[in-house]
Design goal:
The structure is a single chain. The chain is built from 14 helices and 16 strands. With 451 residues, the protein is of the alpha/beta class. The protein has a domain of 219 residues: Carbamate kinase (3-Layer(aba) Sandwich). The chain has an 8-stranded mixed beta sheet with strand order 3-5-2-1-8-10-11-9, sandwiched between helices. The chain has a 5-stranded antiparallel beta sheet with strand order 13-12-14-16-15. Strands 4-6-7 form a 3-stranded mixed beta sheet. Strand 6 and strand 7 form a beta hairpin. The structure holds aspartic acid (ASP). The site of aspartic acid has 13 residues, from helix 8. Aspartic acid binds next to helix 8. One of its GO terms (cellular component) is cytosol.
Length: 451
């Protein structure tokens, strides 16, 4: 049994919905369908969720909402008309969109979430109606009925573990169940959304709850690419990734799936596949717990900019008990989260995201390092990028770093730092931002030129 989730671009128009119907009809194991709100039809278009944000802002600042209301309703009407759905569906959707203005305007932290959730909720109703009208017996289910109970953290809900038993009860339904993604209901009955892009999380929760054999996540690309297509022309898509590898790639800038979406499926030991609605016969990328034995060593190369490094040196640093703790205490006191800490004998660097710093915080760090920790030198280096080579099989393979370093040196990329965790899922290189593209190209050619 499979849980199948479709993203906004897969549901943006009637022609996309026809593909969705074919995909579900094509495999009787697809018993649960989780849907996003209608996304963009083209690059200039607006996502329904973004239009709902506008609607909320106009509503709460006492502006005229009519135009935005109409735009949203028309978005659904265009789809229902082209699909030849009954008029009652669009009437129900329109009423729901109008009724949002009956929600408390001030002082209720969940009103915003209720506006946003309307995008997925109405889309799920529309899609269930469309399936039924085309010979696929299906049923729309509200997250409350499905048992998706979440913490009361507006726009950042977390699933409550008690939900899973209730969700499991959906298992034996004879109809295809259509669930709106992106939100759950608190114990007090308020609608509360996950963070943006959170329909992926709902799909993962349902898959874990009903103990699906597979969680299929349909998007508009042939799976996860081995490198960013903006940098590498036509990179190949990765056939198989482990959850750990996916986490590393996502960390360094790959954003196909919502970060938190991996957790329920991972804990429930449910394999996941990312597929393309516009090319459903392509196998996509499978995300599994463990690779088969003969799997390639390096699966992907990711890069991300926006890093800074706090570099310090102090003679005999290695002998000073407590030095590292004191450095980290400086950061903790300023509420700064750090990412990596490569060290030498008498030097230490802390790599962090530049968004963690402000000019005032930078000054404070340098002051504390020189005055309190009495370092010999301290500086903050900006405009750095990290490049990650990812692959669990590197652990049992000699020479990956050598291949990478050779490729980088042949292309005159200066490696500023190298770091590898003991789990050896990835090797990280720090380079200057203006060498990031060159580095990714060099590494892609070194590891994937035969593909
Ligand atoms: N519609 C929501 C968003 O745009 C959630 C999702 O599509 O996953 O963030």
């Amino acid at each position: 049994m499979k849980v199948t989730k479709f993203g906004g671009s897969s549901l943006a128009s009637a022609s996309q919905l026809k593909k969705v119907l074919d995909i579900i009809k094509d495999d009787p194991e697809r018993r649960f369908v989780v849907v996003s709100a209608p996304g963009k039809r083209n690059a200039e278009d607006t996502k329904v969720t973004d239009a709902l944000i506008r609607y909320y802002k106009e509503f709460t600042s006492d502006k005229d909402v009519t135009q935005t209301q109409q735009w949203i309703i028309e978005r659904y009407r265009a789809i229902t008309e082209e699909l030849g759905l009954k008029e009652s569906i669009i009437q129900e959707i329109a009423e729901d969109i109008y009724d949002l203005t009956n929600l408390p305007k001030k002082g209720n932290p969940f009103t915003y979430d209720a506006f946003l959730a309307a995008g997925e909720n109405n889309n799920a109703k529309l899609i269930a109606a469309y399936f039924n009208q085309n010979g696929l017996e299906s049923r729309y289910i509200h997250p409350k009925e499905a048992g998706i109970t979440v913490t009361a953290e507006p726009s950042n809900a977390r699933i409550l573990p008690s939900s899973y038993d209730k969700i499991e009860e959906l298992k034996d339904s004879s109809e295809v169940i259509v669930v709106p993604g992106f939100f759950g209901v608190t114990q007090d009955g308020d609608i509360c959304t996950f963070s943006r892009g959170g329909s992926d999380i709902t799909g993962s929760i349902i898959a874990a709850g009903v103990k699906a054999d597979l969680y299929e996540n349909f998007t508009d690309v042939n799976g996860i690419f081995a490198a960013h297509p903006g940098i590498i022309k036509n990179p190949h898509s990765i056939p198989e990734l482990t959850y750990k590898e996916m986490r590393e790639l996502a960390y360094a800038g790959f954003s196909v799936l919502h970060d938190e979406a991996l957790v329920p499926a991972y804990r429930g030991k449910i394999p996941l596949v990312i597929k393309n609605t516009n090319n459903p016969n392509h196998p996509g990328t499978r995300i599994v717990l463990e690779h088969s034995n003969d799997h390639v060593t390096v699966v992907g190369i990711a890069g991300d900019s926006g890093f800074v490094s706090i570099n310090m040196t102090k003679y005999l640093m290695n002998r000073e008990v407590g030095f590292g703790r004191k450095v980290l205490q400086v950061l903790e006191d300023l509420n700064i989260s750090w990412e990596h800490m490569p060290t030498g004998i008498d030097d230490l660097s802390i790599i962090l995201r530049s968004r963690e710093l402000t000019p005032i915080k930078e000054q404070e760090i340098l002051k504390q390092l020189t005055q309190k920790l009495e370092v010999d030198t301290a500086e903050i280096e900006h405009d750095l990028s990290i490049i990650m080579i990812v692959g669990e099989k590197m652990k049992s393979q000699v020479g990956v770093t050598a291949t990478a370093a050779k490729a980088l040196s042949e292309n005159e990329v200066n490696i500023q730092m190298i770091s590898q965790g003991s789990s050896e899922v990835s090797i990280m290189f720090v380079v200057s931002k203006n060498q990031e593209e060159k580095a990714i190209k060099a590494l892609y050619n070194a590891f994937f030129s035969n593909n």
